[in-house]
Amino acid sequence: MQVKILGCSGGIGGARRTMSLLVDDEIAIDAGSGLGDLALEQMARIDHVFLTHTHLDHTGFLPLLADAAAYLRQRPLEVHAQAQTIAALREHMLNGILWPDYSVKPSRENPYLRFHPLTVGQAVALGERRITALPALHAVPGVGYRIDSGAASFVYSGDTTLCPAFWEALNAIDNLACLMIEATFLNANRHVAAESGHMTAELLAQGLATLRRPVQLLIAHMESGREQESMAEVLAAAEKWQPRAVLQGETFVL
């Protein structure tokens, strides 16, 4: 199984791309602006999209993806998300005003995309791979994802502040290999982080203190323009875990 990082930034500007991962060229995890760098033929090969939550840096390219490659596809794009996320996308994005409702167009029988609600703890089997929704604590309902090849698991936190249930779920993963986790705000902005449901280096250290498994620690979703400051704080707070910033375009084989 290959996991490619299409976007890993907390914002835009220059070469930054917002959050999206590509699994084996067939599965997208989140639909940030990183998806837009794919060729149309690559977009058409994506059969499933798993969304962590509604925010635009994670969902903004979903309607564009469904539209751009529609004529190359013979089947709907299967979109997996929490029921609250699906409802919000229908009301605020696929509402006929911001974008057509491609879950019923061009027809209800053969739409461009089809929604599948999921819940925390639910696993979706796609061939030998299993995608499992993990707990998260954000400003809106959200999840992280465990992407399991059978041999190893890559975990992506989505957007979350300190969430004890998330770390408990990690401790239950016997083949945990990589953890890609957000560190959006500097420690000085801890109050903003708390209000918005995001992580700081201090909060990350508290979570790691409860983790009982070895893991490759990858830091993502840092505030645009403050990546170096953010990584310096993460290194100071979690040095023994040897954290590093995940890189756009990087591929992990599991």
TrEMBL record:
Protein name, per record: cAMP phosphodiesterase class-II:metallo-beta-lactamase superfamily protein
Pfam (any one): Lactamase_B_2
Gene3D superfamilies xrefs: Ribonuclease Z/Hydroxyacylglutathione hydrolase-like
Molecular-function annotations in GO: 3',5'-cyclic-AMP phosphodiesterase activity
One GO term (biological process): cAMP catabolic process
Residue ranges constituting the Metallo-beta-lactamase domain according to the UniProt record: 16-198
Source organism per UniProt: Sulfurimicrobium lacus
